[in-house]
Predict the structure.
Amino acid sequence: GELFHHRRTQLLLVNSLTFGLEVCLAAGITYVPPLLLEVGVEEKFMTMVLGIGPVLGLVFVPLIGSASDHWHSSYGRRRPFIWMLCLGVLLSLFVIPHASSLASLVALNTRPLEIALLILGIGLLDFCGQVCFTPLEALLSDLFQEPDNCRQAFSMYAFMISLGGCIGYLLPAIDWGGSFLAAYLGGQEMCLFSLLAVIFLSCVLATLFVTEEAAPQADVLGGPALKDAPPKPSAPACCSCQLSRSSCLLQARHMMQALRNLCTLVPRLHSLYCRIPKVIRRLFVAELCSWMALMTFMLFYTDFVGEGLYHGVPRAKPGTDARRHYDEGVRMGSLGLFLQCVTSIFFSTIMDRMVKQFGTRAVYLASVVFFPVAASVMCLSHSVIIVTISAALTGFTFSALQILPYTLASLYHHEKQV
């Protein structure tokens, strides 16, 4: 009982950061596009700005993963990288709402610098937030290596992502400008990002109480530890400098190895792609296109509601009717994304029953077909209620895309058919 309680506590501590990361990313997806439009970034350039983080992540995820595998420190292998990336997230949560103030401190013509700082903050939030999941998942795997414990850990991980998404989409839907916090923190942006910073910082602090991973100790010893092995004598003081130097050289060698692995990544990916069966390749393309469509919808939905349904103007001056309508539309769009996340959680709980009733392939195809139907309804309808309901129902597609492609791949390997 005590050991189980301890393991469950560790699981909650690690996954609290999962929750905090997803809250920040979900709120960012909701609130960042309107911020970019407000400062004058054109819509055709907005996708380029929002693509900075994912592109950098594509390059640095293998590098960080390889480096953390070979890292040795008193805080373990993963947590130094997690904390470094979390620092980037916290910095972005400060830069984004204060971009205008920071620009006014440096330059007279503040608009170009404000846009640059905003782009920097958005790229930092997206990059650090997304990449941080990699060492976080590795930390979970290190701490919970037994199959049963691992399944429980990643079930909690998936739940925390869904819960964080719900909270992250809900927070921008609240009118913080009219709350008591506005008197102390400022307007909507200041209140929202200050609240995100407090939530995220508390989640990061929880990881300080995570026990050391067992894997690094085995790496340091060069193999499994022996219970009866005598303790190693401590190094003399005169050798401490040499040990420190050799440790630095070892870490530098590991970093160079990680860079070499990164350089050979593209050829290896190409050869791997050529060996993939045609059926799995089609599944990959379907998954890629589906996620592209879904992420594009989630990025631009709040702006669509603010401009298309509420007829607001993002570049209008604060306090005007056009700006007020746009802000109301953004909050309603955030509510729609929150309902999408709730719907996703609901369908995740009944997905097993649906698969048993209709089959994996049928449910997956239905989810893929359902999304363009819902998107068409949103484009043709001018009713806020119908659009919000359609957005909420896309949670079915969101849930299916997170579960069924992996089931279909497993089904192929067992039965050689999809």
Observations:
- DSSP finds 17 helices and no strands in the chain.
- The chain has two domains: 1-216+250-265, 276-418.
- Residues 1-5, 214-241 have pLDDT under 50 and may be disordered.
